[in-house]
TrEMBL record, chain A:
<dbReference type="InterPro" id="IPR030664">
    <property type="entry name" value="SdhA/FrdA/AprA"/>
</dbReference>
<dbReference type="InterPro" id="IPR036188">
    <property type="entry name" value="FAD/NAD-bd_sf"/>
</dbReference>
<dbReference type="InterPro" id="IPR003953">
    <property type="entry name" value="FAD-dep_OxRdtase_2_FAD-bd"/>
</dbReference>
<dbReference type="GO" id="GO:0050660">
    <property type="term" value="F:flavin adenine dinucleotide binding"/>
</dbReference>
<dbReference type="InterPro" id="IPR015939">
    <property type="entry name" value="Fum_Rdtase/Succ_DH_flav-like_C"/>
</dbReference>
<dbReference type="GO" id="GO:0009061">
    <property type="term" value="P:anaerobic respiration"/>
</dbReference>
<dbReference type="InterPro" id="IPR037099">
    <property type="entry name" value="Fum_R/Succ_DH_flav-like_C_sf"/>
</dbReference>
<protein>
    <submittedName>
        <fullName>Fumarate reductase/succinate dehydrogenase flavoprotein subunit</fullName>
    </submittedName>
</protein>
<dbReference type="Pfam" id="PF00890">
    <property type="entry name" value="FAD_binding_2"/>
</dbReference>
From TrEMBL, chain B:
<keyword id="KW-0408">Iron</keyword>
<dbReference type="GO" id="GO:0051539">
    <property type="term" value="F:4 iron, 4 sulfur cluster binding"/>
</dbReference>
<dbReference type="InterPro" id="IPR050157">
    <property type="entry name" value="PSI_iron-sulfur_center"/>
</dbReference>
<dbReference type="GO" id="GO:0046872">
    <property type="term" value="F:metal ion binding"/>
</dbReference>
<keyword id="KW-0479">Metal-binding</keyword>
<dbReference type="InterPro" id="IPR017896">
    <property type="entry name" value="4Fe4S_Fe-S-bd"/>
</dbReference>
<keyword id="KW-0411">Iron-sulfur</keyword>
<dbReference type="GO" id="GO:0005737">
    <property type="term" value="C:cytoplasm"/>
</dbReference>
<keyword id="KW-0004">4Fe-4S</keyword>
Length: 577, 77
């Protein structure tokens, strides 16, 4: 089959995104049934793409027998996320957490073990023990790549997916995209699609003003969130922004998860602790923000009290893994951990379920609300899932997408929709005059910072939305001089979609929740009577952005007496102190 | 609106004496997540064509001849 002289590529399962969840999903489909055709599509190169391009220094949510139970983990994440979680999905993760660690271990991923050979678990969370260091975690991507080759997954690098396709019955049917180096379009017909497109990390602007100096890998520009929206899938709790405590300007994690178990901690300017626990939650971020803005700010990571061999161990882990250029950044400012505390700040806002809870709605089977479309990793809505959650949900999606594809006939394609999308893709290349993507991106992201960054204020967000919609009016002036600029021009359209979603979702929930993530100054209280729901955002029958409430599924684990633990994160001072 | 040429100092530096891109090597170009390293048509060597860097370092780590150096972008250094 051809559409506009473009051959349509057929597959059983299409996986979009080759970072963490995507390779695991693709391998799982092949493990389920080697006869199923699987294409793994990646905007960069699977060898070095996604959040863990340089590896990872630890598991932040390992549920290891003898150290924690799935029930304890589900309880802790529910409390850390102010009750708004789909517990069956967190439980499905927690139960598969340990088998996945053992699978990765058998593949050659090294986890830290103690002298008895047991996993060397560390306590970072407020209540339980879930952190497992990976001091040699720099080679995770290499190990994943070897598995992809072994089970013969077909890999298409340097293709950006731009829109998902569905058939007349509303089931998923494939995807349209474009080669980022040649500008040539690609059409893939698929019986099932797994999205693993990562966070929406390019919505806000880092304080450095450098567009690509984001916390997230900037290739994760929210294409998946935009595509899911346009194909009619529900997104959930988008107002629960991701905001993380980072090294100022460098914008990488300060890594209290690595340094905490070795004696490092977060302090104010006086070198005093002000939070009980360094685990990233909205409640912790609110205390961090208050300290940052206070007379005892800014905030620092303190290591200068540690022994020389401990500091060397920290340097070895942090300067070779995940964000290894950190050592160079410190050198440039003469920041030696032995003498100087590391200045910290908060990140730009984004959507990322890996650290918070916003994303494309997925249930305990990894399914979105569009039949045949699955989501895993930072783009899907399972709260606080981190790298191990991406692997587990990659696996869950792989199993369920394989089953869905196996029983299905070839989907029908909507040729008129594809033609319109091909025209949208090509338009910026056809113009010789107009607005370059970089300028439009800077403008919309600067608006997000000015108007949507918490503390959120209703009137400001209304103005922000108005201004973002005005930028949207300029999309038909976007000009791209080569295929690379076309990639950026298509990304900026996803960024505008995400910025509008961020504004509307934040306006919809008229309460405060998740600490700083959704701190509304003019609705300062949590309102469980009205808002103990997931918020929904979706495209309605008229093509407009619409909202709704999704009831919270019955808890499978009761919260008990610790239910308010995350509301008591500030270090108490003695009355005479 | 007419377009201007915008200049910026880029963070990734390629040592042209060590780079073997003219002999067909494409490793750094292949692994860059942002696709900002391209062949310089004049020299046949790799260079940073777009100032869109995450200072993530696969280009430097994977280069077979140690020709690539990743610096911290000027705006945040």
């Amino acid at each position: 089959m051809q559409i506009q002289d473009i051959p349509v590529i057929d597959t059983d399962v299409l996986v979009i995104g080759g970072g963490t969840a995507g390779p695991m999903a693709a391998v799982t489909v092949k493990e389920q049934d080697p006869n199923l055709r699987v294409i793994l599509l990646e905007k960069a190169n699977v060898k070095r793409s996604g959040a863990i391009s340089m590896g990872m220094d630890g598991l932040n949510n390992a549920v290891v027998p003898g150290h924690a139970t799935p029930e304890q983990y589900v309880r802790e994440i529910t409390i850390a996320n102010d009750g708004i979680v789909h517990q069956p999905a967190i439980m499905a993760y927690a139960q598969r957490s340990f088998p996945m660690i053992e699978k990765l271990d058998s593949w050659g991923v090294h986890f830290q073990k103690d002298e008895t050979g047991d996993y060397d678990m560390k306590k970072v969370h407020h209540l339980g023990t879930y952190v497992l260091p990976m001091p040699e975690g720099h080679n995770v991507k290499k190990i994943l790549y070897r598995r992809l080759r072994r089970v013969r997954v077909e890999i298409e690098n340097r293709y950006q997916a731009t829109r998902l396709l569905k058939d007349a019955e509303g089931r998923i049917a494939g995807m349209v995209g474009v080669n980022t180096r040649t500008g040539e379009p690609i059409i893939i017909r698929a019986k099932a699609v797994i999205m693993a497109t990562g966070a929406a990390g390019r919505i806000g602007l880092p304080t450095s003003g450098y567009l690509f100096g984001t916390y997230e890998n900037p290739a994760n520009s929210g294409d998946g969130h935009a595509m899911a929206y346009h194909v009619g899938a529900d997104l959930a709790n988008l107002e629960c922004f991701q905001i993380n405590p980072l090294i100022k300007d460098y914008n990488g994690p300060a890594c209290a998860y690595v340094t905490g178990p070795l004696g490092g901690y977060t302090t104010n300017a006086a070198g005093e602790r002000f939070i009980e626990c360094d685990y990233w939650s909205g409640q912790m971020m609110l205390e961090f923000f208050k300290e940052l803005e206070s007379g005892s700010g800014p905030v620092f990571l303190k290591l200068d009290h540690l022994a020389e061999e401990t500091i060397q161990e920290i340097e070895t882990v942090l300067h070779t893994n995940e964000r290894p250029s950190r050592g160079r950044f410190h050198d440039g400012r003469q920041t030696n951990y032995r003498q100087k505390m590391v200045e910290m700040h908060i990140s730009e806002v984004g959507f990322c379920s890996g650290h918070s809870a916003s994303g494309v709605w997925t249930d305990e089977t990894g399914a979105t609300t569009v039949p045949g479309l699955y989501g895993a990793g930072d783009m899907a809505s399972v709260a606080h899932s981190y790298m191990l959650g991406a692997f587990v949900y990659g696996q869950i999606c792989g199993e369920n997408a394989a089953a869905f594809a196996r029983d299905r006939a070839e989907p029908q394609l909507d040729e008129a929709y594809i033609a319109a999308e091909l025209a949208r893709i090509r338009a910026p290349l056809a113009r010789t005059d107009g607005i370059p993507p970089e300028q439009m991106e800077y403008k919309v992201r600067r608006l997000v910072n000015d108007y949507l960054q918490p503390p959120k204020v209703t009137r400001k967000m209304e103005i922000g939305l108005e201004r973002i919609l005005a930028v949207r009016e300029d999309v038909d002036k976007l000009v791209a001089r080569d295929p690379h600029e076309l990639l950026r021009a298509l990304e900026v359209q996803s960024i505008i979609d995400c910025a509008e979603m961020a504004a509307r979702a934040s306006l919809y929930r008229t309460e405060s929740r998740w600490g700083l993530y959704h701190y509304r100054v003019d609705f300062p209280e949590q309102d469980n009577a009205e808002w103990f729901y997931h918020s929904r955002l979706f495209k309605d029958a008229n093509g407009n952005m619409a909202h709704g409430k999704r009831p919270i599924a019955d808890y499978v684990v009761e919260l008990g007496e610790e239910k308010d633990a995350y509301n008591r994160l500030r270090v108490k001072k003695a009355a005479n102190g | 609106m007419p377009l201007a040429n915008h200049k910026s100092s880029v963070p990734v530096i390629v040592d042209e004496d060590k780079c073997i891109a003219d002999k067909g090597c494409r490793v750094c170009i292949e692994v860059c997540p942002l696709d900002v390293l391209w062949i310089n048509e004049e020299t046949g060597k790799a260079h940073m064509k777009y100032d869109e860097c995450w200072y993530c370092m696969p280009c430097e780590a994977d280069c077979p001849t140690d020709a690539v150096k990743v610096n911290i972008p000027y705006l945040l250094s």
